[in-house]
Structure formats: C-alpha cells, structure tokens
Amino acid sequence: MGDRTLVVAIGGNSLIKDPRHQTVPDQIAALAETSVHIANAIRDGWQVAIGHGNGPQVGFILRRSELAAHELHEVPLDVCDADTQGAIGYELQQSLGNDFRRMGLDRQAVTVVTQVEVARDDPAFGRPTKPIGTFMDEARAMQRRDGDGWDVVEDAGRGWRRVVASPRPLRIVEERAVKALLADGFVVITVGGGGIPVVADETGSLHGVAAVIDKDYASSLLGTVVGAEVFAITTAVERVALDWGKPSQTWVDRLTVAEARAYLAEGGHFMPGSMAPKIEACLEFLERGGSEAIITAPANLELALAGRAGTRIVP
Q: Are 232 and 298 in contact (CB under 8 A)?
C-alpha cells in the first residue's frame, strides 16, 4: 500500500469520447483507457481515491424516465445521481481490477455511494443555472413549472429546459467510511458526479435535493478530507492555456496560487463552466493545505505526477 495519497477527478472524456460513442460498451472501453494510468500510479506507490463526472449519464436516465412517464414513475434527480454512482463505479471497479490482475497487483477498488451536504440557503438555489434533461416546447415547460415547481429557461431558440442549482459542497457524509477504506488499502471511488446533493433539516436529518454539485469542487474537498498530497484533474487537454482560443494562446507548465488567482480575476483566460471551475477547485485544495494540484489529460497522468507533463499549480 502506498503512503502518498492522490485524489483523481476523472473528466467526462474518460467516459464519453464523442457523440458517436455513448453506449455502455463505449463507456467501458473509454474508462479502460483511463484506468490503466491510474493503476500505473497505484503500482508506483500512490494510494488513490477517485471522483468522476456523470452529467451525460444522468441525462440519459432522465430521458428514459420522461419517455416512460406514461407507464412508470419518474426518477428524481438525486436518485439519478445514486444510480450513476453505482453504474460508473461498477465499470471503474471492473476496469481497475482487470488492470491490477495484469500487473500482478494485490489491490481492489470499491465504490462508495456518496452523499454530499450542501447548505439549504446556498445562494445557488436562488439562481439555478445548470440545464438538465431534454428540450421541451413552451407549453410543456410551463406545465412542469406550474405543476411540479421546476425552474425552466428558454435555450437560444432550441427549446425550453429545466435548470437546477449548483451549490458548493460542504461535507462528505460518508467521509469516515472513505478514510477507513483508504487506510485498509482499497482504491476508493467516491463523490461520483460531485456526490448526491443533500440538505439537513432542523433536526439534522438529511434529504436529497434537485441540484448538481460540480465534481471538481467535490473532489477537491475529498482531497482535503483524506489528506491527499496531490489533487489531479484529468480533462480533454494536456495542459492549461492562457488566452484560451485566441491567437495569443499560451500553454502553461506551472502556476502559483497567486498567479492563478490573478489570471482568474483578469478573465478571458479560463472558460466559465469548463477550465475556470477546475482552476478554482485546485486553488481551494491548495488553500486548504494541499501540496500540489495537477491538470492534465488522462494518458499523461503518470508523467504529470513525475513532473514531466500537465500543468502544476503550487502554493
């Protein structure tokens, strides 16, 4: 078992490479390409916890639920999150297990269905922005708004969609179980999709809410909770760029917290909803005491951990 702890947040490209490869077998094949690099890090001595996205998969479940609504009950969003944690966790467990067998490693991966507490009064609940589910015509959207209390918005002439809040994670409810499993040598898959968002009522009882927690923020918090030395986010690009998409675009190998904060404040460098929250998640990890954060492509994870690829963010 390794004595250095690494938290890896797997990006969506590790599950779905493009719109033509969305089936479950496609996702398993894509995960296999990422899991081998995580297995290599484990072979090199890292103790690993893994977070992952689930946006498209939740969308698929919601769509199936809508199509079957004439016959079966619809599935609430928090239960969709739980469903995807189980399914994606299973796929990752299997893929990592196959890697371990090939490498001769006596290791096992396990998935924790994870609740993440958010604040009932988080300002995000007052301005829901995350679109989920399928497009609707205006009449259907108004029916869901008035009958079910949905927040709906018109999306650039393409139709209407439901939007939900994206509150910040406060607490990983199953923290003690995750720590115990890591301490016992398991590779732990947790906070899938950012975790199942729950709020506490006046008595402390937890209840699921219709919201989406950013998986990078939740994985960053996971890194702090388990005392990880390194927090790594794998994404579609090998490194972070300044002036993204402009003629002046420049790839960056290393940033300090102060430099990254300054670039965030300038605007125009990191795309909102894409690279910006990844940078912010890394900064929060470091500002809570982490040693190093890395952003890179899945195939470069081992090189990035060795300092030979990716973008490193340091205090």
A: no
Q: How many domains does the chain have?
A: 1
Range of the domain at 178: 4-117+171-314
- Give the three-state DSSP class for 262: helix
Out of 12, 97, 159, 208, pick the active-site residue. Answer: 12
The whole-angstrom separation of Cα 250 and Cα 109 is 38
Asked whether the predicted pLDDT for residue 236 surpasses 70, the reply is yes
Please confirm, yes or no, whether 223 is among the known catalytic residues. Answer: no
| pLDDT tens profile 114-146 | 999 999 999 999 999 888 877 888 998 899 899
Q: What is the CATH number of the domain that holds 32?
A: 3.40.1160.10
Which residue in 276, 226, 277 sits closest to 114, CA to CA?
A: 226
User: Considering the domain boundaries, does residue 157 fall inside one?
Assistant: no
Strand pairing category for 46-52 and 4-10: parallel
- Kindly name the residue from 17, 97, 98, 130 that is annotated as catalytic: 130
| Beta carbons of 152 and 136 less than 8 angstroms apart | yes
Entry pTM: 0.93
CA distances from 121 to 11, 12, 124, 206 (A): 29, 29, 8, 15
Q: What is the C-alpha separation between 170 and 119, in angstroms, rounded? A: 7
Nearest CA to 192 out of 62, 79, 81, 43 is that of: 81
The catalytic position among 194, 223, 278, 290 is 278
Is 246 part of the annotated catalytic residue set? no
CA distance 238 to 253: 10
Q: Is 300 a catalytic residue?
A: no
**pLDDT at position 2, please?**
56
